[in-house]
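Rotation project, supervised by the postdoc (A.L.). Task for the rotation student: set up a whole-complex structure prediction and record inputs and outputs verbatim in this book. Inputs entered:
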Amino acid sequence: MSLRSSHQFSTSPTLKPGLADPIFDAQSVFRAALSANAYPGRRVSIDRALDAPQPLATSTAMLCLSLMDLETPVWLDRQTAAGDVPQWLRFHCGAPLVERAVGARFAIITDTGALPHLNEFYAGEIQYPDRSATLIVQVPSLTEGPTSVWTGPGIRDSASVRISGLPSWFWSDWDVNADHYPLGIDVFFTSGNALVGLPRTIKVEA
Amino acid sequence: MSTNSNNEQSGHNEGYNFAYLDEQTKRMIRRSLLKALSIPGYQVPFGSREMPLPYGWGTGGIQVTASVIGPKDRLKVIDQGADDTTNAVSIRRFFQMVADVATTEKVLEASIIQTRHRIPETPLNEGQIIVYQVPTPDPLSKIDPRESETRKMHAYAEYGVMQLTLYEDIARFGHIAKTYDYPVLVNGRHLMSPSPIPKFDNPKMQDNPAIQLYGAGREKRIYAIPPYTTVKSLDFDDHPFSMQSWSGCCSLCGSTTSYLDEVITDDSGGRIFVCSDTDYCNDRQAQLLCDEHSEVQT
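Outputs recorded:
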């Protein structure tokens, strides 16, 4: 089932399509996300094409279409919410969009300059730490930012990772997030057609 | 109810979605798997579905495999180490039917290995996924069957009571008597059941380069161990964890380092020991034949 354009959406005559192959694209993207989360710090590419709505990168949009649905409230930052993304998400995923970051299971951030502090997102409950938010943070580059050294489960010794565009306070916020383990948020950094996973177990020296 | 009565013997059965589960269910399980990897050893509740086989036959593992598998994968299924036992054969046929996926008996050729109660002897590689079928995901449930209580114990890492049951073994038998489903502490935080693998296999979970996923269908829990993660079998300083050992070797391949099954051969008490991992044993037998052959030639 694919809808190229839809006339009943008067505000956006050009609703961007969803996954070309909903079953196998979603499977392939999920496997990329699984690898990224299992081997944090490694850049994992998605070898599927998608005409993503502005301002989403291919990998950001692919993660949305593969993981979100009516069970996952989604929060969008201002830049993401301004364009066609809300309508696109509602149409293809059926995901409810929430106003407050704390109510979201997924958060999409494309303007890292305006990234809220990490404690504004839901970190789960002590008996159910799995209910915490997953952040999808779209950055300019996964390989050309300042070097940070990651250690933890999924990394053999240590990994040196170069995420760009993060606010200066990000890694000190991340230390606080790691201190609350097993509570905590998890992050996917996306750029272009690639992603890097940062689960809450990872300690980062920036 | 099946609307497609004349199922083909091979090839993807068009009457079902790819890999049997619907996409909404797969997404729910996939989200659970990602959270499970983020909290190693923590049991994530999930909406386990009714599967076309009874609980206890690997419904949890099958749902995990079905959510992970794609057309490029090559699947290996083992039951107690063997590729040719009932559970392994039926699960492999299930995925051939609903996902038309390639299968193998070789550990190193497989991208996904679904297992009941063993970890293969051949070490796994990065990128491989091993899916365990789990009957009882919570190691504390035998101590307190109320989930309301065990969930608190996990929340606050109150695991003294588990240590106590091991100590009771020492007091009664002089050693820790648990030989399978031996509890482990994952990433120094969560107590986890490794599923009923023999404790012989416990050290293989530590720092394994592969992704380890666990599915319990009846109990509706998913958990995971990421690669390169510490997995410590519980023990005491004066009673350290120890593995089973055998005085003999495998009667077929001569291995002295693999997990051996005892097989009764006659009515007068005759018995032999053979590897439980059939792929490993077959490889070694082939290698032995090869070596003998080249010795004869030289």
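Student's summary: The radius of gyration of chain B is 20 Å.
Supervisor addendum: Chain B has two domains: 23-233, 260-297.
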